[in-house]
Design goal:
Blueprint lengths: L9 H10 L12 H11 L13 E2 L1 H8 L3 H9 L16 E2 L6 H12 L5 H6 L9
Antiparallel strand pairs: 1-2
């Protein structure tokens, strides 16, 4: 909670703590109120949206902006092409918006697109699932 307290709203902090399967002192899951109380008791600053920070986006928004899949974004992160960070294990990845315009990322995206099958556009238009044997 100390790492994420001032950087995220209480609601997002509660979601992350639940995702990590952390329980509150009384053994219950985290809610906004259950996050706010110990944050205030420990003297951890509340989230300030006006604080100057580097603008970051989530992996899903990164995939949308780069026009590639979420799995490909994770692959670029693993390969070190796309700089991203997690504040702690199970926390969402934060991708700096400025990194999307770098040459290394552009080359990585081109490589992802080059691996696509030649009929990729046709496959995107198919709305029915075709299972073999049915």
């Amino acid at each position: 909670m100390k790492k994420l307290g001032g950087r995220w709203p209480d609601r997002e902090l509660a979601v992350t703590m639940n995702r990590m399967r952390c329980k509150s002192v009384d053994g219950k899951s985290w809610t906004t109120v259950r996050v706010r109380e110990p944050r205030e008791q420990l003297g951890i600053a509340s989230f300030d949206p006006t604080a100057t920070t580097v603008e970051t986006i989530c992996v899903q928004e990164t995939a949308r902006r780069l026009k590639i899949s979420v799995g490909s974004v994770y692959r670029l992160i693993r390969e070190g092409i796309l700089p991203a960070k997690q504040l702690m294990h199970s926390a969402p990845w934060e991708v700096p918006v400025a990194a999307l315009k770098t040459e290394a990322v552009a080359i990585g995206v081109r490589n992802v697109i080059a691996r696509r099958p030649s009929n990729f556009d046709v496959l995107q238009e198919v709305k029915t699932l075709k299972l073999p044997g049915f």
